Amino acid sequence: MAGKRGALIVLEGVDKAGKTTQCNKLVQALQQSGQSVEMMRFPDRTTIIGQLISAYLEKKSPLHLLPSMKKKLEQGTTLVVDRYAFSGAAFTSAKPGFCLDWCKKPDVGLPKPDLVMFLQLSPAQAALRGQFGEERYEIDDFQRTVQQKFDQLMKDPSVNWQEIDASQSIEDVHREITTHSLNTINTAQNLPLGELWK
């Protein structure tokens, strides 16, 4: 690696916790501070693959794909990611008959995030937010099970998890996320990129 690499920063959480809003605000704040930064969404609904995944989430088609980000990170671009492999594992293993360890296997070896911020919000609070229930996985009992799976994932000491109280104001959540992110960018720039779950 010739220069300083970008950080891989992921925002996770149950549905309607504010991940997309906070990703957008973080990217804007980092750009204003002079950082090279891009936002990625899983799924990225602006691409054909993302539209197919979106169709699945909206109960139309069964597909799943996670793109590689290594090149951008090595070129010094920080990536702010709206959901990552953790969501795939948590949401899939929340369905009957799927074990969490088995659900993690397809994503072993992906670029390991330097920071994963979990936006903590109860299913009851999430249900009060707009458009809850439009996607396949937004059923209250299911969201509780997803939360339990995320709780299990957050016990992994090899991943840098930070829990953020998403019931705070948007600006308070943003300040906390930005502080964690700037610290992580400074720390990660001289470290090698790790591999997830290896």
UniProtKB/TrEMBL annotation:
Q: Which SUPFAM superfamilies match?
A: P-loop containing nucleoside triphosphate hydrolases (SSF52540)
Q: Please write the reaction equations for the catalytic activity of this protein.
A: dTMP + ATP = dTDP + ADP
One GO cellular component, as annotated: cytosol
**Which keywords has UniProt assigned to this entry?**
ATP-binding, Kinase, Nucleotide biosynthesis, Nucleotide-binding, Transferase
| Pathway stated in the Swiss-Prot or TrEMBL entry | Pyrimidine metabolism; dTTP biosynthesis
Q: By its UniProt entry, which CDD domains does this protein fall under?
A: TMPK
Taken from the record, one Pfam family name reads Thymidylate_kin
Q: Which residues form the Thymidylate kinase-like domain?
A: 11-177
Instruction: Quote the InterPro entries the UniProt record gives.
Output: P-loop_NTPase, Thymidylate_kin-like_dom, Thymidylate_kin_CS, Thymidylate_kinase
Top-rank lineage group of the source organism: Eukaryota
Please name the GO terms that the record assigns under molecular function: ATP binding; dTMP kinase activity; nucleoside diphosphate kinase activity
Q: Which family does it belong to?
A: Belongs to the thymidylate kinase family.
Can you name this protein? Thymidylate kinase
This chain's source organism reads Seriola dumerili (Greater amberjack)
